[in-house]
Predict the 3D structure of the following.
Amino acid sequence: MSLRLEELSPDVVVVVTDIEGTTTDIAFVHDVLFPYARAQMPSWLPAHAEEPEVAAAIDEIRVEIDEPDADIDRVLEVLERWMSADEKVTPLKTLQGMIWRHGYEAVDFTGHVYDDAVAALQAWADDRRMLCVYSSGSVEAQKLLFTHSDHGDLSHLFSGYFDTRMGPKKKTGSYKRIAQALGEAPGSLLFLSDVGEELDAAKAAGWQTCWVARDDKTMDKATESEAHAVVSGFDEIELI
């Protein structure tokens, strides 16, 4: 089912997109980004621990685990556990983003973005719609992926980036806070994601929603729900 402009009320002013599984292949995140950060973390963290940004993230970890005196070895132990469990913990995401910065700048990899996503995002930007990102990855990680993408620098297309500092992606309050930050009525915001629980939370906050189901398993889940529009790619979303 295609999402058409006439089906949206009121008009979409801002499109907010997820990254993993939506604009970007999940395999890139899980097979390239995560292993890279995991391999680099044990040597990178001690080497950069005194830098203000890194030290602040380490302090956040100490607060999170309620161990104010935790040393670097203990912090690394916690980070390893979080990475193994794919925890969406803000200081972990912050540190991963810093490590990925090095990888992007060294051209160890480039950020994957689906062709249909690039074309649609460009068309919506040309149509003067505001584009934003809301992802569990840190804001820095989001910017890096789109700045160093397979299609070149796409960062100019986006006007805002939001991460878990706005709250968990499956909680309605997060979307209320983003709407407040954007200064727009929730009904004028469209959220694109491949995760039903995230879309449910956005819908409960008054947003318009679209389920991007790029594989058969996700499509089966999406078509079982009647709460959201369902597409298999950005090229089916007609907002122009």
